[in-house]
Design brief:
Layout lengths: L1 E5 L10 E10 L3 E4 L4 H17 L3 E10 L12 H19 L5 E7 L2 H9 L4 E6 L13 H8 L3 E6 L27 E5 L7 H14 L3 E7 L3 E5 L2 E5 L1 H22 L5 E7 L2 H9 L2 E8 L2 E3 L2 E3 L2 H9 L4 E5 L2
Parallel strand pairs: 1-5, 3-4, 4-5, 6-7, 8-9, 8-13, 9-12, 13-16
Antiparallel strand pairs: 2-4, 2-6, 7-16, 10-11, 14-15
Helix pairs in contact: 3-4, 7-8
Amino acid sequence: MSTLRRGSSGEEERHGHARWRCGACFDTSPRGSTDGSPESLAAAHWAAREAVRRGTALRLVHAWKWRPRPTASVPADMPQRACAEETPSRVSDTVRAGHSDLLIIDDLLEDTPVTALLAAARQTDLIALGSRGISGAAGFLTGSVSQRVVARSMRTVVLVWAGRSGTDEHLCAMDGISPEEIPETPYRDVVLGLDTGQPCDEQIEFAFDAARRRAAPLRVIHAFGGPSAYAAADRLTPVDGPQLLAEQERSVVGTLRPWCEKFPEVAVTETVAKGRAAGLLIRASADAGLVVVGRRMREARFGTHIGSVAHAVLHHAPSPVAVGPHV
């Protein structure tokens, strides 16, 4: 069952050739975006598993745009709507086959992919999108649909590599037994990148909640740079070495204290180190089930930037990455 909603592009065309993309989203729940490609299928399945963890419905968002010229993949005599619905229906059936008890709602939106997905994101708490994976050209390319949605969405966006499955969210079982054969195999850590200078409550809460729902440990990573300073006797005294490390550790503990009290069941470990946050997070992502980072909200001359840390993690972390705006 598909629900067609008109986008900003105008009236529905009855015939022609569709160019579309889908998304996976949730109702206060997750939404998933999928166009039938391996990466979007991975995102849709991730969104389905997240919807089960949250006890919500899953809304699969499919965006398409009328194209006046025939393409090799679309028969010239095929009605636009039939073409636009064919792959979404197949994707929904695939997701339903793996999650028979999950309520899945299809949304077919007539608009460009970025516009449609941003509109869908405004009606949900979380949206999942796919990426082709790490290659010579890098996965989440500047200008891609995924990166443009991340840069402009006011909701958390989770990006999932092609080829990721539910098995990858769990620790490997012993004796060659796969996690699928042992459902109680523990989840991998949730990793949170924390900036104590500009902590984002929304992302901190998202990470704690994700760890709680998975009964997984939460690993918090905070990186700091050169010496800080404090005022004393009308001058600035540099603070470095062990004193600086202790200062940073106290800042992390203070920032996390109210969240540890709110989520007492979550086991938290803190990693505080001098260095680049992106490098620490990328290394941690190799063993993580989910990485959570914030992004800057700033406009630049050539478009919206998400910040160097979020950009690097999106390009190089093998695990799913949740990115939310600093608000």
